[in-house]
Amino acid sequence: MLEGLEIGRKEIIHITVTESMFAAFEGEVVHPVYSTVSMTYHMEWVSRKIILPYLSSEQEGMGAAVKIKHVSPAPYGSIVTLTATVTELRDNKVITNVVAESDTGVIGLGEVTQVILPKATIKTKWNEASA
Predict the structure, then answer these.
(1) What is the pLDDT of residues 101-114, one digit of tens each?
(2) Closest to 97 measured CA to CA, from 1, 9, 2, 5
(3) pLDDT over 90, % of the chain
(4) Is pLDDT at 7 greater than 80 in this prediction?
(5) Could you tell me which residues come within 8 angstroms of residue 106 by beta carbon, excluding any fewer than 6 positions away?
């Protein structure tokens, strides 16, 4: 699948919570803290960073599933560190566990599943969905 990628490989990103990451619906801020939506995005991003060096020019990764538990708030200005670790390589799937932490401790736990497919297969799926 992805030659050289092994269980245990890690990737880390650091983000600073901004107003654009607040929990909001229809443009109205509900809570001025790091939203679950933003955390999900960052968990997918740190997991994607794991596969990028291993993709061939004919391959691409697609998100297939995200499980997330948002356990604690992170207010404006908090620095959040997200660490993804490969826990499973199965068929064409890469599964990572992700931990999001701030200076107060763990704020989120997640699992991201990515599917590795030929770019031609993805294009065919897009075309079928658009028809």
Answers:
(1) 999 999 999 999 99
(2) 9
(3) 90
(4) yes
(5) 71, 72, 99, 100
0.85 exceeded by pTM: yes
Q: Which residue has the tokens 């619906």?
A: 25
> Beta-carbon neighbour count of residue 105 at 10 Å?
8
Q: What was the pLDDT predicted at 125?
A: 85
Question: Which DSSP string corresponds to 37-104?
Answer: HHHHHHHHHHHHHHHGGG--TTEEEEEEEEEEEE-S--BTT-EEEEEEEEEEEETTEEEEEEEEEETT
- Residue 73 has a CB neighbour count (10 Å cut-off) of 16
The residue count for the chain: 131
